[in-house]
Design goal:
The structure is a homodimer of 355-residue chains. By secondary structure, chain A is of the alpha/beta class. The first copy, chain A, is 42% helix and 15% strand. Chain A starts with a strand and ends in an 8-residue tail after the last helix.
Chain lengths: 355, 355
């Protein structure tokens, strides 16, 4: 098992990340939490356990159930199981389950203990670490939530063996984002040199990739746990482009795929505005192509109004101007407003080309 | 205007308490928050303003609406008003409104700014200070909530002029509780000597009483903002008895009246178990009688099962044993389990007396 990673987050609370690399290691750690525990699954993640625990709630799977109604089910189950403030909720699943379990744990008796076991690559490298809980509200993604770091996060590549290929590649989009947010090139070089092993999900290589990726994320959130200093926002690299794509596409594009596309668009805008050196943008695009992402995709011209309105409806932009994350260099993100015309050029099919 | 009181609370955040003693002072301070503000009223408190502000939500009044549905209305109104994370929600009303506005503010975009203007005495001395937000859930009072201290709390006796007598006396129950939780006797002596002025709501005397009362509360919450060290629990003096009375009485007894009664019952149990000196219990009862509380009330013998089950359904007791706050002396609360037989003696009519 790799060394743990301890990350200090909101309210001075810290999260301990463990990397149990086999099913056996994972089970052992989980059984250590005792029986006064409520498990939260979705209809997919429940299949990863051969036997369901005593107290559990199984929610329908998917972003469209990321609503108060589901959180209410978790809290209700906690009450039935007579959980106290010292008891533990275990969120066992992807980002939706982890975000909602974290919200329920932060609210139940004003906060009980929280353990997260992300079962998708996307959730391992993104939602599980950082203390953000959330549900969607009136169509705005993650509008309602709290900062509530998990006590423990258990990241085990053993959960990834059966993950669908598209889900796996969605997670890789966030990993590649972290490579460019890192001030050193360790993760970038690793992604280039270990490409084959990563795609065949070699356990040892995966563990190292997860550790490198989470260390980059940890560096940003530790300096700005409640996203108040303009540092943590850097993790949104590619995301403003991505969220709007997801919206106009009715969430038919997986999040990490959209992020990969958004990364490429952000690099393009960086070059266009003189922020990013063309050689760096070329590195972004090459790595994305190496992993097979469709970065040539463009929005049809007739959908520009939809796309542009989706950009301004992003939660972060409700009250003011839209700021994009651009890259000055590896690990040197900057927040910039972008002229609407530039965004338009970045995402639309050019005049003569059919979308 | 009295000096402000600054109280450091959960997450190292602090609340500034202001005492604007006239309507004019209060209005001036409120207008200083600008226009990117959402106001939350109930159907009572809205009448305290001659003109409604631009962005506001008016909720139905009463504990039975202290539910997610109301919080959702607040969040929805915030979204309509395009509030951002730097915008302000102002909770203007009694405990229910303040608790729910605080919850909505803690959840909207993972936390926007919060100002509370308590308009009842109970809320001024209790709910407004301390950073607890809450709603009821499946009949359990305050089961769901967060720790989220207000940025500012504005406490103005001008709001109390039209408060119904029963509401006023309900608030006084918590003030008297604070008198016995204070390590000095300043508040106790003040309540004895200024009894007449307090009952006729003399503005200057009220201000001083509010300041003394809040200082006592502040002393407990600053040492234990998230109620994890067994210190803040002392503020529940009388409350375990009180909550159960409120429950068996279907909330027909006002909270502060129930707390006054519970104080007397806790003092009785303290004497019975050798924790409390009889002379202190006598002081408790005399002060309560001076203010006209019915401390001779008892539960009918046939309702003991209901009462006793209500005690164990108190949120704090869901997962384990019931601990009561007893008094060793002024400002020296202790947490004790009590034999069920002693609780029974404390609250039931004696065998020969009709309940």
């Amino acid at each position: 098992m790799l060394n743990n990673l301890r990350v200090t987050l909101a309210n001075g609370k810290s999260t301990e990340v463990f990397f149990p690399d086999t099913v056996r290691d994972l089970s052992e750690r989980l059984s250590g939490y005792g029986r006064r525990v409520l498990w939260v699954f979705d209809t997919n993640s429940r299949n990863l356990l051969s036997q369901l625990p005593e107290h559990c709630v199984i929610l329908p799977s998917g972003e469209k159930y990321k609503l108060w109604d589901s959180v209410e089910k978790i809290i209700s189950a906690a009450l039935d199981a007579r959980l106290g403030r010292d008891s533990i909720m275990i969120g066992f699943g992807g980002g939706v389950i982890c975000d909602m379990t974290a919200l329920a744990a932060s609210l139940y008796m004003r906060g009980c203990r929280l353990v997260l076991v992300p079962t998708t690559l996307l959730c391992m490298v993104d939602a599980s670490l950082g203390g953000k809980s959330a549900i969607d509200f009136r169509g705005v993604k993650n509008l309602v939530g709290t900062f509530y770091p998990a006590m423990d996060v258990l990241i085990s590549p053993s959960c990834l063996r059966t993950l669908a290929e598209a889900e796996y590649m969605s997670g890789m989009g966030e990993v590649i984002k972290h490579a460019f947010l890192s001030p050193d090139m360790d993760l970038y070089d690793f992604l280039v040199s270990e490409h084959d092993a990563i795609l065949r999900r070699d356990r040892t290589v995966l563990c190292e990739m997860l550790r490198l990726s989470l260390s980059v994320k940890a560096g940003y959130i530790e300096r700005d746990p409640e996203e108040k200093k303009g540092i943590r926002q850097a993790l949104n690299l590619g995301h403003t482009f991505a969220h709007a794509l997801e919206t106009v596409d009715n969430f038919g594009t997986k999040h990490g795929m959209a992020v990969a596309w958004g990364l490429s668009r952000a690099a393009w805008c960086g070059v266009r505005t003189g922020v990013t050196d063309p050689s760096l943008a070329e590195k972004v695009d090459s790595l994305l192509r190496l992993y097979g992402y469709d970065i040539d995709r463009r929005i049809e011209r007739g959908r520009w109004i939809d796309y542009s309105s989706a950009v301004s409806k992003d939660k972060k932009n409700i009250s003011g101007t839209v700021r994009f994350v651009l890259l000055e260099d590896f690990g040197r993100p900057v927040l910039r407003e972008l002229d609407s015309q530039i965004v338009r050029e970045a995402v639309l099919t050019s005049a003569g080309v059919q979308g």
